[in-house]
């Protein structure tokens, strides 16, 4: 039951992020949506790794740890690109 | 009894998590959206600590919420400044 | 957002979510299959570290972490190639400056602690690097234009340190005939610690430099420099 609850929360976060990613146009909103989508996937992996009485599986944990760092570096790169675009448009 | 309490605790954790995500996604004010996103990241770290993943919870609190939030806050500030330079039109980053 | 398109997208995403929920439900109903955790725990004594997550990151799946550091480096190169950094914030007032002088050493100390403790308890290179990066962010917010980072030439070395030490260790183990990143028993702990230390410095520098958000030099400097 608890596993379904946590796994389901991951799916819901992913779907919410996907919806917002498709619906909003500003870059920063898309990035927040993308990060929430990613968090949903990470959350699903963590929820799968936890299995009641057994110790949690370290392999998905390591995957998620790697994923978090990559997500932040991608966000930083996207923000830098957005800033460059703004500058080139001359403040629009 | 204990199992029921634990399930209630799980429910509170998960509903708050999803609620924060929704608030961060639909908040009309861009800066508030970023702050809600930071709160979401910190709450997510708490949930992961509950799921016995302390390593990942530490990383999410420090990298995902902390540094990611700082990056986005700087961007939100820039967007607000640009919007006010444009005479206040499109102030919240203009939803399509 | 308030258009019909938004509703259509919402309906599709809702269908997708229901389908995914069904998938998760069936996966849970089928029950737990075999998992890698048992193998990970069985091999733990040979890796020299007792935190299984660190063992997975730096011993079993060292390639992943090496390539991840390369991704981080590539992202920073992208940021640097997109233009010069904006000028820093105005210098902090006395109160903020006082807090910064307290907080930054504490962050560095906590980073070192997390790096060391990562071998046997929650912690490790990424968390420690994030704290170093946070120290840089705090310094930039308090008015330091370079986010506390050293001059450009040193910054370049620090940024590649993680990948460089990782690859050098890999080549050294290859030279010993063990294969790329196959640590000899007994050396494992110290090799992992060396890689983690370099990775911490590199991650901290990269994250702080990413927060600065542009290359830390102007074209005039480069033509004079190189």
TrEMBL record, chain A:
Entry's transmembrane regions: 6-24, 31-49, 61-82
Chief location of this protein within or outside the cell: membrane
Superkingdom as given in the UniProt entry: Bacteria
Keywords, comma-separated and alphabetical: Cell membrane, Membrane, Transmembrane, Transmembrane helix
Cellular component annotations (GO), alphabetically ordered: plasma membrane
Cell compartment(s), UniProt: Cell membrane
Membrane topology type: Multi-pass membrane protein
Matching InterPro entries: CPA3_antiporter_subunitC, NUOK/Mnh_C1-like
Pfam families for this protein: Oxidored_q2
PANTHER family reported for this sequence: ANTIPORTER SUBUNIT MNHC2-RELATED (PTHR34583:SF2)
Similarity comment: family membership: Belongs to the CPA3 antiporters (TC 2.A.63) subunit C family.
Name the UniProt record assigns to this protein: Na+/H+ antiporter subunit C
Organism, scientific name: Thiorhodococcus mannitoliphagus
Taxonomy of the source species: Bacteria, Pseudomonadati, Pseudomonadota, Gammaproteobacteria, Chromatiales
UniProtKB/TrEMBL annotation, chain B:
Residue ranges annotated for the MrpA C-terminal/MbhD domain, each copy included: 16-79
Tree of life domain: Bacteria
InterPro entries per record: MrpA_C/MbhD
GO cellular component: a single term: plasma membrane
Cell compartment(s), UniProt: Cell membrane
Parts of the chain that traverse the membrane: 6-26, 33-51, 57-76
Protein name per UniProt: DUF4040 domain-containing protein
Species of the source: Thiorhodococcus mannitoliphagus
Membrane topology: Multi-pass membrane protein
UniProt keywords, alphabetically: Cell membrane, Membrane, Transmembrane, Transmembrane helix
TrEMBL record, chain C:
Regions crossing the membrane: 42-60, 67-89, 95-117, 124-142, 157-183, 190-212
Domain Na+/H+ antiporter MnhB subunit-related protein: 96-203
InterPro entries according to UniProt: CPA3_antiporter_subunitB, MnhB
A Gene Ontology term for the protein's cellular component: plasma membrane
Main location: membrane
Pfam family, one: MnhB
Family in the record: Belongs to the CPA3 antiporters (TC 2.A.63) subunit B family.
Name by which UniProt lists this protein: Sodium:proton antiporter
Biological source species: Thiorhodococcus mannitoliphagus
